[in-house]
Amino acid sequence: MExxxxxxxxxxxxxxxxxxxxxxxxxxxxxxxxxxxHIGNFRAYMFEDLLRRALEYAGxxxxxxxxxxxxxxxxxxxxxxxxxxxxxxxxxxxKAFFDDLKTLGIEPAEVYxxxxxxxxxxxxxxxxxxxxxxxxxAEDKSxxxxxxxxxxxGKLAKIDRENQRAGVRISTDEYAKDSVAxxxxxxxxDENDGDVFWESPWGKGRPGWHIxxxxxxxxxxxxxFDIHTGGIDNMFPHHEDEIAQSECANGCKYVNYWLHCxxxxxxxxxxxxxxGNFFTLRxxxxxxxxxxxxxxxxxxxxxxxxxxxxxxxxxxxASSLAYFDELFIRLKEANGNSCPxxxxxxxxxxxxxxxAICDDLNVSGCNAVIFKLGAxxxxxxDAGSLSAADSAKILDLFRKFDRIFGFLNVDAAKKADxxxxxxxxxxxxxxxxxxxxxxxxDALRNEIxxxxxxxxxxxxxxxxxxxx
Length: 468
Hints:
Layout: E1 4-7, E2 12-15, E3 23-28, H1 39-57, E4 61-66, H2 73-81, H3 86-103, H4 119-131, E5 135-137, E6 143-145, E7 169-170, E8 182-188, E9 205-207, H5 209-221, E10 225-231, H6 235-250, E11 255-261, E12 264-266, E13 269-270, H7 281-286, H8 291-298, E14 307-308, H9 311-333, H10 342-357, H11 363-382, H12 388-405, H13 420-434, H14 438-450, E15 453-458, E16 462-467
């Protein structure tokens, strides 16, 4: 199955051609474990999960590496504020992150390398850059990458280098887009680092954020691999710096396809800890929302479009998922006439779904397919024209689609336990309708509704009952 993506490097959609046939190797930017991840972060992780699932759906064997940034400016700063050892501090948020992945149904990556476990690889990479003349030790004893030595610097973010100020250095991990400057590969120890340091050929210190990802990606995926992803805010400086240091060290292309997702917005602003307008997964769970409902919302727009978060969207997600739960219950109970065109019917929806997901992960198109399929199934069941065998095939199709979505949960949908007295009222209503006693039928419907249930008429003097 051919699948294509919008490659940020070339600013165009391209058919995916892997380095190794039948395999897809990708590096997905993971969390900086200094706090609970907010749902803006999980918008990116959900996109990466969608990408992984789509590649598997298209028949590829996926090797995914997702890093855990457990040493950087923020983890050191906050662990010292809490008067905790760095590893003890970050362990809290590593566990929380993996708990959140399970809650959202995000498939696990093959490798979750932590930066602190790969310091030797980072030192070796910095040494290579020093030996090749791309890096230098400054007066502050830190090691910096010289972007003047890499003429292609800025090719991902399309940065105009002409107005750059030569000789400017930046030691912090994150900086503004207009700060094009030499960046730190290895940071010399200072008193703000406390007891966080490693010995190196240049004295005690710690890695810069950017070198961490290059070293870990190369170790597990090779010098050139297929896909690198992240939020759009990672494009510069992080991904730009990764490209520079990796390609200079290895003398070859670093990544073939760059995919970036847009921000999650709240009231028109980017959701972020710095703005204070963020919600963690725990915040939403405490308000009564479920993981599959949050997953539904986070997959509600194309990954390259900004997604505006609202609580109304979560409520709508609950309603939509309830619709599908009811649909799956109906399909499991269907026992109508055989549908002569069932195979063509299934093939049509299968083809439409495949076209959408393989077109740069077009989830809106996929959503349209499942809702259209649901409406057609209900229509056919209302007419008594779906047999049990037909319905089984359709349920299998929904299961296949849920390999992408991960929120339909076809086999989890169960009929609600309806009290026997409510069922008896419904049966009396059927008898009243047979006798054309409409007043009694209406009174029985009202009595059922007053008890907190809804009755829906179905073909052949049958009915469906569900909780209001």
